[in-house]
Amino acid sequence: MGSFIAHAQMAGNKLNADSSRFIELREVKIDAKQKSIHQSLQSFFKANNASTLEEIMNRLPEISFVRRGPYGMDPTIRSLNGGQINTLVDGMRIYGACTDKMDPATIYIEPMNLENIQVQTGNSGFLSGSSIGGTINLKVAEPDYRQAKQISGSLSSGYQSAANGWFKSLLLNYASGKWAFRASGTYRRNDDYRIGGGEHINFSQFEKVNYSFSAKYRYNQYTFLKADFLGDDGWNIGYPALPMDVGYAAARIGSISIESENRNKTLYKWSAKLYANRIKHFMDDTHRPDVPVHMDMPGISKTIGAYADGEWKLNHNQSLLLRADLASTYLKATMTMYQPGQLPMYMLTWPDHRKYQSGVSASWVNNFDSLWRLQLNGRMDIINYRLISADAKEEISILGYPDASRNDLLKNFSAQISRKLNETLKASFSIGYAERVPTGSELYGFYLFNSQDNFDYIGNPQLLNETSFQAEGSLVFHKAANRFQLTAYYKNIQNYITGLFDPSLTSMTIGAEGVKSYINIPGAILKGVELSAVVNQVKYWQLVSTLRYTYGRSNENVPLPLIPPLKNVSSVRFQPGRFSAQMEYEAASSQYRINTDAGEDVTEGYFLLHARLGYVMDIFKCTTSIQFGMENIFDKLYHEHQDWGNIPRPGRNIYVQLKISF
Fold first, then answer.
1. Beta partners for residue 569, in sequence order
2. Domains, in order of start, for the chain
3. 304-363 confidence digits (pLDDT tens)
4. Angstrom distance (rounded) from CA 251 to CA 141
5. Could you tell me which residues are beta bridge partners of residue 616?
6. I want to staple 115 with a disulfide (CB 3.0 to 4.6 A). Which of 141, 145, 353, 479 is the partner?
7. Does the predicted model carry a pTM greater than 0.90?
């Protein structure tokens, strides 16, 4: 039967098996010969057919989200986000066009678009781009030659009560001879959602449509050519934790690529891709009551880039991965204020600038014997920032920076050693050094309002690069269909970038408490532990559980902001055949370690209970799946620590889903 797979594994040499997670989303046919530990996590990361990408990713122990509303949540890897991590789509760099981080790359992708989610943490997360926090790569689904039918696909529809939300999707796959095509479309509409107790959260609605098309040509037995296009349009998007909403957000993402794999050759796998994307984003306050000054705030992001990589078998024990990539990104955002009785006031909130990036990386693996394994990773990047208009240069010069261009050489390297202790137990340990360059907002941002701490922020072109010394260890137990993994990590970040109140500057946002400038502080420390377990000990029964805890502080022993508390998600599933029943709970402790300068207060702990039912049947040669569930059964009023403005999350939510596969 069709199912969704979630698993952690090594994908070639690109992913480190002990510091990565590889989440399979593409629908596949599973028979008894194919079942393995990786299928045992099915339906845990895919709670229901209408799950958003954020809902799926949030169940991973490494990932959490900064939430400003139910749409466009900002992903973090072990509490690092923004420019501290890479978020890629099929290896492509995409930068949001919003100065308020309303549009991370993840909002332009639907689970229907994806084959898998690759999460690289620890000391291998910089191979696709210099990073101190890791990489999330959203691998786009490809046309499938393996289908028994020439035309196949699925149709889904569903309803969720908490936001009066509707979900519809369509997937089509066509394969004939050397050609295969794949097309998909998804539509979502949510009203203002209801929280525990019955109250509705104003300005939490959204509507969007997502569509994609892929064509694949089999040149020969080993080589394929592929073209992809993905579009996403959202409108009337509410952000209850912010003073403005989004009138529209649109993405156009395209690429052409070639890839080859022949295990009989020394260069057994290689690929190359050329891509381009454009993001348009328009903030809107016209639906907000009592707005003292109406503002238009459009932003645009354009990126073109290319990459090539290859994997070599050096000998029976050794392999080598090489990657080269380059990209050019243009960013610009403006604000026009319409004050009654005065001429409109115009300024650049992101002075138009361009970022040029080029880099090379390598990963060498040596399996000394059946027990010991060594992996060495390295990467270098050359990054150039420059302002590209006279207006941009003039605006930044007002802040005392006559020359705001910069060139940076970034260096990253790591080493990991792992050993099988016995047939079921493996231990690994890695150390590394990584660097990251400041973002456009940190360098050039001009009076960017932060509603969490109620300050305007301005950039600093003279910021130093953040650097990180890091260590990570893991212990993995794997026997039959049971798996346990314990991971501990430590990061010592130097030149940590944060905001500092500048009393010499006057705020521009009405009601703001002042202005903060981005500065470097000497350092910060992040450390934590993660545990995941999959147990299939009894027939038809499955237990999946994840637990995470992160501790962060500055060099002056001040808690870092937006650090989530201890959290556990556990699921018990009973599936004797076509019928399935699942009980699931989420629990988080209170967070008392807060940073009041960042606008934080104490967050109370919570306990949530969810129930899910499913049934699969065959009707007219189609596989029909019906899902029913109730989330937050006790209608708990709660919010998570990374939720801006303490905006409560949805209360009791009843959903029903229908999916027909043909």
1. 546, 586
2. 2-661 (2.40.170.20)
3. 999 999 999 999 999 999 999 999 999 999 999 988 888 898 999 999 999 999 999 999
4. 18
5. 625
6. 141
7. yes
